[in-house]
Design a protein that fits this description.
de novo design (two linked rop proteins), mainly alpha, 4 helices
Length: 122
C-alpha cells in the first residue's frame, strides 16, 4: 500500500536532501559526529518526516502546523550548511547545491502550506 505523502513531489525532494546531507556529512571530522553531523542529519530527516505526518492530519490547521515545522527544519539545515562551510567542513559548491535544494523545497512547502493556510514569509 502506498500512502498519499509518497506521491508529493516535495516529500520526494526532501528525501533527496536527506541523502545529500548524509553524503556530505560522511566526510565531516570525527569530533563532529555528535555536533553538526548529527544535527544536520536529524534536521533533514525532520523535513521529510513532518511533510509525511502533516499529510495525514485531518484538519487543515494541523496540516499547516506540520508544514511550518518542516519549513523550520529546512532553514535549520541551511543554517548548519552555512556554518559547515564557514568551518571548512563543506566546500562552496556543496553549499550552493544546498541553497538551490533549500530554495526549491521551500517554495514547494510554501505552496503546500498555502493550500491549507496563509503564506509563509520566505
Amino acid at each position: 500500500m502506498k500512502y498519499a505523502f509518497e506521491n508529493l513531489e516535495v516529500w520526494q525532494k526532501s528525501r533527496e536532501l536527506v541523502k545529500l546531507i548524509y553524503k556530505l556529512t560522511f566526510s565531516f571530522p570525527t569530533e563532529e559526529k555528535f555536533g553538526l553531523t548529527s544535527q544536520m542529519r536529524r534536521a533533514s530527516v525532520s523535513v521529510s518526516s513532518n511533510i509525511a505526518e502533516g499529510s495525514t492530519r485531518w484538519s487543515q490547521k494541523d496540516q499547516a502546523r506540520f508544514y511550518e515545522i518542516a519549513f523550520g527544519s529546512l532553514i535549520e539545515v541551511l543554517n548548519q550548511a552555512i556554518l559547515s562551510n564557514d568551518l571548512g567542513f563543506m566546500d562552496e559548491d556543496s553549499l550552493i547545491k544546498m541553497r538551490v535544494d533549500t530554495d526549491t523545497i521551500g517554495r514547494m512547502l510554501n505552496s503546500l502550506y498555502n493550500s491549507t493556510h496563509k503564506p509563509i514569509n520566505l
